[in-house]
Task: structure prediction
Amino acid sequence: MAKILIVEDDVNLANIYKEKLTKGGHSAKVVVDMDAAKEILATKPNLVLLDILMPHVSGLDILKLVKADAKGASIPILLLTNVAEDTTIAKGLELGAYGYLLKSETTPEQVLSRVNMTLEETSPAKP
Result:
């Protein structure tokens, strides 16, 4: 069971993702405030789903803070956003995001599938 942290200001949407991930065998927690970077670094989840557009802080700023810290550098972060601008997505990938998903084009089932695939790809090799 992997620990997934969902950073999303839309509580209803976040709870949909949380339910899907939990039913998929993961432990999921939702964070909706500006302390997301602190929460990520304190709990060291196996993966983070990170919204870009939030009311008080940009997801890209959170990404930058987490990736600049040794404790967060190796945590895979998937941007889960409605921002479809190539420059914004490219900036997120440049800052260290593992990938991105467009909310408007991705079902909760597809989010679970991408989470599982990312966890498989980023897990340390087993002897």
